[in-house]
Amino acid sequence: MLDLLQLYTGFPFHKHLDDFDFTFQPSIDVKKIKELKTLRFMYEKENVIFLGPPGVGKTHLAVGLGMEGIKEGKKVYFINSITLVDKLKKSFYERSFEKQMRFYKALDLLIIDELGYLPLDSEGAKLFFELISEKYEQGSVIVTSNRSFNEWNKIFEDEVIATAVLDRLLHHSTIINIRGKSYRLREKQKSGMIRLDTSKIIDENAQN
Ligand code: ADP
Ligand code: MG
Description:
CATH class: Alpha Beta
Number of strands: 5
CATH superfamily: P-loop containing nucleotide triphosphate hydrolases
Largest sheet: 5 strands, parallel
CATH topology: Rossmann fold
Shape: globular
Bound molecules: adenosine-5'-diphosphate, magnesium ion
Structural class: alpha/beta
Strand content: 5-15%
Distance between the termini: 42 Å
Order of helices and strands: HHHEHEHHEHEHHEH
CATH architecture: 3-Layer(aba) Sandwich
């Protein structure tokens, strides 16, 4: 069956905030999530950053907030960071960059997933920065990342661009730093099949 919601929003799955088990992830301040659920951040054109190791629910919470936006008739779009940068580059070479930008600018909420799994080259980093600058105070952006902020210059391979991106993203933002175990691995860990502690993957000194 054609999934129209998925087609229009790019959501990788249909998950709601109510489906999230907060008792499994005690490092999350539930008050912050409740505040985000009011969507005030979207009306104020503020941003949200989810940081944490794999499997802790970053994408789930981002999609959950996106779902709340859809319910209010907001324009929401979800995209993986690598796909996003590839599209920006392609449009740049095909001279349709302005058109691409208009699409992203018109969104109430742009969710950029998995920033930092792979580094961006200098061209990709510049185009990414341009997008973030365009969205600054014009519309909300949610970013999920497995890298703490002091590692972001490794993502952009350029400290000046990393600082400029962070400056705009963080100016009006809520940061949810999740330090916990992977939900994906919980069953396997319970049964003793896996003993890997993924909570150590993110920098312990990440600021909240
Ligand atoms: P991340 O983006 O941090 O790698 P995901 O959000 O993709 O993690 O979560 C992995 C899977 O586990 C998803 O299917 C998600 O719905 C589920 N999940 C993660 N954390 C929870 C939780 N606390 N309660 C319920 N489901 C969760
Ligand atoms: Mg994810």
